[in-house]
Amino acid sequence: MRSGALRRCLPVLVAVVVVVAGCANPEAGRGGPGLSGRSIEVLAVWSDEEQAAFERVLEVFERRTGTTVTYVSGGDEVPTLLATRLAGGSPPDVAGISQPALVRTLARAGSLVPLDAATESVIDAQFAPVWKGLGTVDGELFGLVFKAANKSTVWYDAEQLGPGFTPPRTWDAFTETLRKLSDTGDTPLSVGGADGWVLTDWFENVYLQTAGGQMYDRLADHEIPWTHPSVRTALETLGQAFRPEYLPGGVSGALHTEFTESVVDVFGADPQASIVYEADFVAGAIAESTSATVGRDARVFPFPRIGPVRSVVSGGDTLVALTDEPGTAELMRFLASSEAASIWAQHGGFVSPNRQVELGDYPDDTTRQIADELVNAENVRFDMSDLMPTALGGIRGDGFWRAMQDYLADPSRIDRILADLEAEAAAAYDGGGR
Question: What is the mean pLDDT of the chain?
């Protein structure tokens, strides 16, 4: 999760959400002359270069159907804008939402139109079941994950580490690499601990691999407590990488380093470290904040394997329909297709979970590598903090974020930290957060 703003708006949305009347019209959006002259509105988070790329996708649909599609960029305010539009009875036809929890809230409030059988068939044919599951609420399909993030990537400065550097593939090899670099006097690992979501992302990757996918799901749903031994195991494993001597400025330095600063610490003009973990959007931070070139100076390897299978933690933007106006179903069907995803893929800054998007459609080797690892991972799970109630998983300085910062600050307090987190989780879930 890159921004807590989306998460903090969710309670507002829950309070004011209204039901969009009507149900899916099976004849809506079938294409042909009936769509010519129609208008569709799409509201999503994308702006600037992302907006321009998505609008290229929409232009293809417009030319094919004669429909006019208007795109509105909501940025971090999408939940608030949706709440306002729903309360006023004028929702957009399609919305892009970054939180599965928000999709569930809208679906259960009756504000979403289920995807039709034709769109579901495209998703069944072109996406792995895990992605369909993320758009399914109480057994009914409401959304498709259009733009995904691979949150299991580790970035390094190739110039600093030299041509002889071999990216570590296992956790043991990774921690041994950190130790060897530290022994030479370096502080190899930059951690943006001031942003709690960076630390929760670290934890989620380690937990998924040490506990497995089923336990990950159970913890995300609070079917097991945060005091469960599997949580302790993951934190103690994570602590092997969070040794003070590996971090620029030690633990205190990490806790005062924001995400963008952690990237600059590695790829900036005065590097303080050589390795930084975060999702594929590190590439954007590198381009915006440093002079390094992705794929040449800035390179990537998969999050080190701990368990027996290839595991990936993901995030992403889910598209949902809020009206059954003519053209909405047809647009959703088009956006589910590999053709639509490939249009954006060719322009960069995009990874699709659609298995039929050709790797050659991505513009560089680094993006191709990231996409391949995402699509072909044996064990994929969505960002756990995005699956939690907002009060637990998305507030700066509180809940899950604060607990991970507390652990980084003082691992000896693990029992108290997890007991406090469990108490907060019990309150959040009992309060109807799911």
Answer: 90
| Residues 338 and 106: beta-carbon distance below 8 Å | no
Number of domains in the chain: 2
Distances (CA, A) of 300 to 5, 157, 158, 259: 28, 9, 9, 17
**Are 118 and 132 within one domain?**
yes
Q: Cα separation of 127 and 18, whole Å?
A: 31
Q: What is the C-alpha to C-alpha distance for residues 239 and 237, in angstroms, rounded to an integer?
A: 5
d(CA 279, CA 151): 4
Distance, in Å, from the CA atom of 420 to the CA atom of 272, rounded to the nearest integer, reads: 34
* Residue tagged 């907002």 (tokens): 390
* Closest C-alpha among 296, 316, 334, 328 to residue 64: 334
Per-residue tokens: 393: 């998983």
Of the chain, the end-to-end C-alpha distance in Å amounts to 18
Mean pLDDT throughout 407-427?
96
For the packed helices 399-409 and 414-430, what is the interaxial angle rounded to 10 degrees?
Answer: 180
Contact of 285 with 260, CB cutoff 8 Å: yes
* C-alpha distance from residue 160 to each of 151, 179, 299 (Å): 24, 16, 11
Which residue range is the domain that position 391 belongs to?
A: 153-311+385-430
Average pLDDT over residues 223-227: 97
Both 302 and 374 in a single domain? no
CB-based burial, 25-61: b 16+ in 10 Å, e otherwise: beebbbeeebbeebebbbbbbbeeebbebbbebbeeb
pLDDT of 1 above 70 = no
Amino acid, single-letter form, for residue 329: A
Task: Give the DSSP H/E element, type plus range, for residue 299.
Answer: strand 298-302
- Does 68 lie in the same domain as 44? yes
**Domain identity same for 341 and 412:** no
The CATH number for 42's domain is 3.40.190.10
Q: Mean per-residue pLDDT for 369-384?
A: 92
**How far is CA 39 from each of CA 35, 50, 196, rounded to the nearest angstrom?**
9, 22, 41
273/290 same-domain check: yes
Please report how the helices 48-65 and 328-336 are oriented relative to each other, as an axis angle in degrees rounded to 10. Answer: 120
- 204 and 241 part of one domain: yes
